[in-house]
Amino acid sequence: MNLVGSKEVARAAIEMSLTRTREEEKALKEQLHREGISAAAVDYGGEFITSVNKIVERAVVAAKREGVISETHPEEGAVAGATREAISQIMNKAIGLNVGGKIGIARCGDHISVALFFGIGMIHLNEVAIGLGHRVV
């Protein structure tokens, strides 16, 4: 396995969050696996304020389901913490509005990154934002 650092893991999480289709997501996941990076992605949408906990929960569940993390408190906590960090970066734009997009998660060794790529707004009047969080397990 080719170990990579936090910068490459962050890039992988962002790329996963930018995939447009399940097929593109699967192909990128396979490519990253060949590079030694585990990855997962999950779609999300809803009203921002009431959805913060659900966003964190979806990130943790997706990471466990795809084998990016195991079911241990430190690993679940790392994904939850990185997700909360990413949320805090988009909060000012998203408060009181709807968000929709994708959560990308990537890991290599002890580096875990979570990226949120969301459209923020009402109807078709959207702002776009990316939040990124990183933790070490």
UniProtKB/TrEMBL annotation:
Gene3D superfamilies: Hut operon regulatory protein HutP (3.40.1510.10). It comes from the Bacteria. Transmembrane segments: none annotated. Pfam families: HutP (PF09021). Keywords: Activator, RNA-binding, Transcription, Transcription regulation. InterPro entries: Regulatory_HutP, Regulatory_HutP_sf. GO terms for molecular function: RNA binding. Antiterminator that binds to cis-acting regulatory sequences on the mRNA in the presence of histidine, thereby suppressing transcription termination and activating the hut operon for histidine utilization. Belongs to the HutP family. Homohexamer. This is Hut operon positive regulatory protein. The lineage of its organism: Bacteria, Bacillati, Bacillota, Clostridia, Caldicoprobacterales.
